[in-house]
Amino acid sequence: MRLSLGIVGAGQFAGTFAKLFLAHPGVSDVHVTDLLPERAGQLAAAEGLSGTFPSYDAMLESQAVDAVALFTQRWTHAPLVLQGLRAGKHVYCAVPMAVTTEEIAAIIEAVEATGLTYMMGETSHYHPATVHARNRIAEGAFGRLFYAEGDYVHDMDLGFYDAYRYSGGENWKATASYPPLLYPTHAVGGVLGAWQTHAVSVSAIGVVDERGDGVFDKSVSQFGNDISNATALFEVAGGGAFRTNEFRRVGYPSHIRESRFRFFGTEASMEQLATVALWQDKQGVQDISELLEPRATLSPDDPSLQHIAPELRAAFTSGSAPVHDRARLPRVFDRLPNGHEGSHHFLVDDFVTAVTTRTLPSVNAWVAARYTLPGIIAHESARQGGARLRIPDFGDAPQE
Fold first, then answer.
1. Which is nearest to 326 in space by CA: 126, 79, 122, 77?
2. Would you say 207 and 230 are in contact if contact means Cβ atoms under 8 Å apart?
3. Is-cis flag, bond preceding 96, omega within 30?
4. How far apart are the first and last CA of the chain?
5. DSSP string of 45-58?
6. Residues sharing a CB contact under 8 Å with residue 395, sequence separation 6 or more, in sequence order
7. Could you please report the per-residue DSSP string of 276-304?
């Protein structure tokens, strides 16, 4: 079986993924739609896609499309996912899964009712540090894991202003105030992608922004949000805790490494910074930086990246790290751009394989809920001054 795919949203991220989906041997053709038809036409022409649709509704009505891949604005994801599933389409969706508990519940219910594939495209699930920690946890190398940390430290000045202007039009400041804790999966997903548990409670603190430029201004924000930096401490099932940081005003080289992780066990620990990664036990320290470092496959000036803001291009130039197992990937991907620390190739292959073999993808609806819901509850905790709140859980994915 080969599937026909429809790309929804022809923004800055869609082009790289359109190229990979089109090249995958499990995909027959790729179409695209966008609220701005000229952007859809430009992407179709640039990547040699099969064509465009005038609207998402028209794409869903077409029998020529088996699945859709959503690259739209963050708060639009859940309604579009639900519309796609109810129209009988398999759905790949960029992060986050949703912005409310109710939306997450509705997606899980729709996946159960339709039997269709849903996958959230969380890059940190295949972050080299996550992959390495997942492997070492499975081997028992940490002993009992009891604490972890995940940071998503991406300063607004390093690409986000341009990205919001591109997608938000003249009222871009209203959406640029998107609450950091409602974009939690690049931090939470890296921790829980390695540590096979889930969060059960959280206390979070938010820092009110002081820049004064109309971003993170409650009077401007469509989300009523004035928090630009936030920290959350989670309790996990089975005992232990993890902490995440979501920073949008931070003196840190986000273009070098946006997400970074630490894991602490009774026998060993692992720590990652912007350019250094260490494995530590009771005898000493081993530098594992080279094992986790993706090899650059493109220059930031490569013509294929011209549609992406200069400050964001570094995220799309990385190849795979030595810790990645590329044996399962189509060999055609060996010659194609990757990104976000080597994750893009795996994400595309995960989804196509899940649809064509009717198996669950790695970041299925139940896993996506555990990566997303902690941030939703953490944001509410921050709004309540750090109150410790329980986190609902939708359980494990059903056995196939």
1. 126
2. yes
3. yes
4. 19
5. HHHT-SEE-SSHHH
6. 366
7. -EEEEESS-EEE-HHHH-PPB-S-TT-GG
Task: Divide the 400 residues of the chain into consecutive groups of 10 and give the mean pLDDT of each group.
Answer: 96 91 98 97 97 98 97 97 98 98 98 98 98 98 98 96 90 96 98 97 98 96 98 98 98 95 98 98 98 75 56 61 96 92 97 97 98 98 98 93
> Are the C-beta atoms of residues 7 and 17 closer than 8 Å to each other?
yes
Q: Which domains does the chain have, with CATH numbers?
A: 3-122 (3.40.50.720), 124-323+364-390 (3.30.360.10)
**Is residue 15 left, alpha or beta, with left meaning phi > 0 and alpha meaning psi from -120 to 50?**
alpha
Tokens encoding 66: 């088996």
Three-state SS at 250? coil
The sign of the CA dihedral 330, 22, 193, 142 is positive
Q: CA–CA separation, 96 vs 183, rounded Å?
A: 6
The secondary structure of 4-24 as a DSSP string is EEEEE--STTHHHHHHHHHHS
Query: Tokens 């974009």 sit at which residue?
Result: 183
Residue type, 365: A
CA dist 331 and 336 (Å) reads 10
Task: Output the CA torsion sign for 160, 129, 189, 85.
Answer: positive
Q: How far apart are CA 375 and CA 373, in angstroms?
A: 5
The pair of structure tokens assigned to 192 is 């829980």
